[in-house]
Amino acid sequence: MNHCSTVEERIHMISQIMAQPSHGLVSQLSRTHQVARQTLYRWSATGRQALEEALGKPVVPIKQTATVPTLVLNLLIETHASYRGIQSCLRNMHGIDLSLGTIAGIIKEAGQRAQNWLEHQRAATPRPLALDEQYSSQRGKAYLNVIDVHSGQVWATVPPVEVDGDSWTLVLWYLQEQGVSRLSTVSDGGRAIQQAVSQVQGDEDHQRDVWHLFHVAAQVQGRLDRAVKTEQDRLVDRERQAQREAQGERIRGRRPKATLSKQKALLAQVSSVADGVRYLCQELHTLLEVVVPWFDPSVAWLNSDQRQGQMTTLLDLLDELAPKAPAGLQGQIQMLSRQIRLAVPHTLLFARRLDAIQEQASRALGPEAVALLAWAWLRRAILAPTSEQLLQGIDPSWRAVASDLLLAWDQAVRASSAVENWHSIVRPHLAVHRKLSAGFLALLALWQNHRIAPRGLHEGLSPLQRTGSTSSDTTWLAALGYSALAA
Fold this sequence. Notes:
Shape: flat
Radius of gyration: 32 Å
Distance between the termini: 50 Å
């Protein structure tokens, strides 16, 4: 809308605003000249643009080794940038003006290439797979992900679909057609995954994740500890009131429901229950370790049947503690007992797979030697970072058998942590884009599969290299077909 002010007045106002104005200048000009603040800001932006065009806009030279698609894709994946963020970075850092449509077209084409690459993934050997859902903003729908347990390679990632057995069955069938052979599967025990696994391969090879049980146990323990703290605070208040009563002072506020002796008895009872549950949770952690040395001449380590017996005893003790807990916490302990009882058959599956090789090593070396190896392996973070280095400190006559045993312990699958790590990679992109397409997920999976670990036990290796892939592409951009120089 045109304003009645003259050109000279507008130039005067714009020059004041552009020359680092003091606080409140725009408001003052707006009142003096009867011009809306938005109009003043629009005039100043027009004036700034005219000055840049007149004096020459600085342009950052583009590096010859970088092409526009590689810049766009690197900003998209490496920096979690939005489309508008990519547009702004290219303009400010490289002097490249791209429309949002062009950026979307580059990403769409790269996504199609990435999908084609993922469809041709192959596994030379049967692989242990971690399965899990990552819920989206759409009610009842989630991203379905299948990750290699040992290497972290992404085998399948699906945009939001209904979380049910049919969706997961289609994903598992897709992997079969692709040629990915399952050695075993592991998940958090979701009903949809269990239905699909039971239909496709049977439940006998499906491991229940142990960390979800530990999480439930930690939640119950935390509630018990808070109950103990509450009763301790009440006891302190009751002792203070009892002291005032003894001195003949007037007691203000509501009178306590329990006497001092009853409050002490209640605190002792709640503390006893909390300590008992804490001890049983520690035993649960011990029994679900990869190997449980026993240091007994008759029982050097616990096999799966012995662990099952110990778990039964643990659950019986937990059931005995429930009635002793306060009324509000009895249901929590009963829920924990029920969760463990339902999960035990599939939670101990990894231990059943180790029974044969542990028994074979016991016949070859003796049960005491296997128990010693188990003790050292559980403390490998202190004794040696890797099993290969741990073998160097073992009697040479033991190494052949010990090597197979340590390898079996290293590769025991009892948790779905690999798929949780993948969720942590996807989550920042979800926060930026709200919803990820199949092409975007494929791009992200391709980047993850070629990403070199900067530190840790797998330093210098990518998931593809840890899986044993023979792919000649060393970078994810090269796998997409972009020039190696640009990548």
